[in-house]
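# nightly structure sweep
# worker-07 picked up a monomer target from the shared queue
# config: single-sequence mode, recycle default, output format = C-alpha cells
# input follows
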Amino acid sequence: MTLSSINHVTICVSNIEQSVNWYQTSFTCELIKYEPTFAVLQFANMNLVLSLPSLERPHIGFNKENADSFGELKQMRDGSLGTYIADPTGNIVELVKDITE
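# output follows
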C-alpha cells in the first residue's frame, strides 16, 4: 500500500512579506512563488502556502491522481490543477491532480 502524500498546507497571515521573512529565518525552506497576497515556501516534505485571509481559507492539499473524479478541476494560483471538498467536520481539503505519473 502506498501512502497518500500531502501537497501543501495553506495558512492565513496578515502580512505576506513579514511572514515569508519569519519562516525563512526560522526554518530552512525555499521561496518558490511570491505575490503580494500569496506565497509558497518549499520544505523537504511539502509546501507551506501563505495567503491573506480575504483570499483563501486555511486548508490542506493532498496529491490525488483522480482528483477530477471529485469535482471539476480548476487552475490554482500556484499553477496546479485541483478541486475542493470538505471532510466530515467541514475542514477544507484540496485535491491536487497528481501529475507525477
